Amino acid sequence: MTGQSHNKHSTIRALSISAVMLDGFPPLVKQLPVVLLFTIAILVSLIVPTARITSVPALIAATVLLAVATGLAGFLPRVDLGERSVLVVPVIDFLVIGVLRFATGESSSIFASLAILPAVWIAASPGRRHIAYAFVGVLGGLLVPFLLGSTLENNPNEIARGLFSACAFTMAAAVVNDLVRLARVNISDLQAKEQATLTELQRAFVVQQALLPTSGMGATGYDFAGMCLPSKAISGDFFDWYTASNGIAITLGDVMGKGVGAGIIAATVRAVVRSARNHDDLAIALDRASDALATDLADASTFATMFHARLDENTGIVRYIDAGHGLTIHVRAEGAWSRLTSFDLPIGLISDEAWTVAQFRLEPGDTLVSCSDGILDLYDGTVESLQHIADIVDSSEDAADVLDRVRAVITGADLTDDDITVVVLRRLAV
């Protein structure tokens, strides 16, 4: 029973939204069916023997009136006289249909049903009064032949026929009016929900950005900078740096996927990695993060690549684990660069292999740059694109300048549909 009720509600909503789409069309688009069917009516009257033209002047007058109505349909929205001013077009259409009937046999004309088009047009406007307007329009259009010379003697049932047709068309207009009313309510609800969702996403974005470090660690002789540009409201990337046991920890992670789900997982991984800050063994942080993904977040069926390092600011030694990331480079002061090899699988994938800890020395003037794969899409999408990042580093004055130059590339390129995250650590030259 609940399912039937839900289906019924869905059907009504679909019909109502379809109806309001009619009201949302430009007046000229609404006028086109009238023009098309009027043209067909002329052709039928010329070709079909039983359909005849009884008054050529009236037919010419109807054609001129239709041209005027169509012209107004295109002109009135441009002068912005208000929505009501456009209703003059279906009013003229009622007159056109009445004159057309007079020109094609009066009571024997087969084109009286054309009045449904302007009736629906008017009924789609907000307010119950438009149902009455549609009734008056249909009835008036059907009685136009009497103003042009028809008599009850020649058409004894025309008044009754016109009244009955007006009532029938008005019932259809009432249905359209009600569907449009329901549609406006539904659309208003949908817009309110969408706005609430956007507000929540904006709050989530603010919180996520607040979790990212915004200033250096105060480490003498070192310069830190980082940015995270999400492709959607929430990023599946993150970067971090903080004081840890025997040095400064630097992390960049890239969760599979994008959007809110990836952002939640990224926040979880960041927190788990940070929980190991008091341990000198880098593998502990990766173990905890991988366990969280493989067990606690098993239903999410996801994984994350990660570069996690520990800097000894006294010696410049950087120990690191690269878990399936492979997008970190060491740019030397003289401009030469090398990519740090990734030895291990991403976190979240079950493996009995121990994490591989490697190290290198960051000499004065050297720079460490780690980025997410979104940066590759700014170029040719291959790992060789890191050459461009190395060139940017070589021509930059400091870590912040590196990010400014990367932002300039992003601004000048077709934006990638992936998150872009970059973290920069430069050892200042002596």
In short:
With 430 residues, this protein is of the alpha+beta class. The chain has helices at residues 2-24, 27-47, 56-79, 88-103, 116-123, 129-147, 158-211, 259-274, 282-296, 386-394, 399-412, and strands at residues 222-229, 237-244, 247-255, 304-311, 317-323, 328-331, 337-339, 358-361, 367-371, 420-427.
What's the arrangement of secondary structure elements?
Elements lengths: L1 H23 L2 H21 L8 H24 L8 H16 L12 H8 L5 H19 L10 H54 L10 E8 L7 E8 L2 E9 L3 H16 L7 H15 L7 E8 L5 E7 L4 E4 L5 E3 L18 E4 L5 E5 L14 H9 L4 H14 L7 E8 L3
Overview of the molecule:
With 430 residues, the protein is α+β, with helices and mostly antiparallel strands. It has 2 domains: 2-194, no CATH class; 212-427, PPM-type phosphatase domain (Phosphatase 2c, domain 1, 4-Layer Sandwich). It contains 11 helices and 10 strands. β6 (328-331) and β7 form a beta hairpin. α2 (27-47) packs antiparallel against α3 (56-79) and α4 (88-103) packs antiparallel against α5 (116-123). It is elongated and about 110 Å long. This is Stage II sporulation protein E (SpoIIE). It comes from Salinibacterium xinjiangense.
